[in-house]
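Need tokens for this chain, all 388 residues.
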Amino acid sequence: MTDSPVGPVRAHDPQDAARTGMVQLLDQHGVRHPHPEYEVHLGADELLGLYRDMVLLRRFDSEAEALQRKGELGLWAGSRGQEAAQVGAGRATRRHDHVFPSYRDHGAVLTRDIDPLHILSIFRGIDHGGWDPVATGVHPYTLVIAAQMLPAVGYAMGVQRDGAVGTGDPARDTAVVTYFGDGATSQGEAAEALNWASVFNAPVVFVCQNNQWAISEPVARQSTVPLHRRAEGAGMPGVLVDGNDVLAVLAVVGAALERARSGGGPTFVEAYTFRMGAHTTSDDPTRYRLAAEVDAWREKDPIDRFRTYLTGEGILDEEFETRLATESEQLAERLRAGVAAMTDPEPAAMFDHAYAEPHPQVLAERDEFLAAWEQHDAELHAHAGGVA
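Here are the structure tokens for all 388 residues:
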């Protein structure tokens, strides 16, 4: 425990979570254990699919960071260490479920077959994501903390009013899932979203990836109780799951989504994990956290854990690893080429979709902007001519 101007900061020990009933199917050493409430039954191909998802996510993440360091992206928010939490939750959804991500949920989005270049275009600053939310069920990234939570609840209430909940028809019943971090639980939008979801029994699952640090603030600065217990005050179930155990996350989020689809209402899931890298590429985590903490969590690496399990079961072999390594390299090459080929949008494009129909004020602002842009261009050319 250390002191600060506003009081003591208590370090969070992963074992504290285990003592509070954390759901875990694979322990730190890759040994599978039965659980009285949660279980998944997957074939070898499905298990290898989860492993592939996590490995490709990590390569995507490392390549995106490298692209940012080269000046190709303006910023990057990494997901290293959180692969199991994101892939497990993402693979628990059905095609007609709807996903409301934050800015770090690349794994959850990629499991919905979103082109990874559409994610990188956001961080290059040329659009808000190139996918169609209606066709994919994946809504745009939200960079404002907790801002996606209330729209997720609103969408879930709309699904409910459309009669797409509790019908017993798997092709119709729909759930909504929203992802956020531990720091987001301190925002007012989070409290409002939990309350509205509970009061209206909305079919929404809140997946909190507790990665221990909200930028430089430890989770102890966000809450004096485990985050999943926030659900008690809102009147919904709260579940703590080992966020580095992809099978446990898949089981817990899958059960919560099924509960939502059947009309059982919302659930709060806290995935207990760790952000191994920086908050973003503009952050230096060595300024606020100890190397010993990072080393302790490195021993719980979600990919290493799952690899150990699959190898021990005779499911993962050298041939699959070789093919996956080749696929990872191909992904990296595609990302580098795709980002290099991205072009800047037309300046006036930002006005095109502000409203569904033409709006006089927006049109006037567009004309004013274009006039200023033309004047700026003219001044640049005149200056260049004078210098020459």
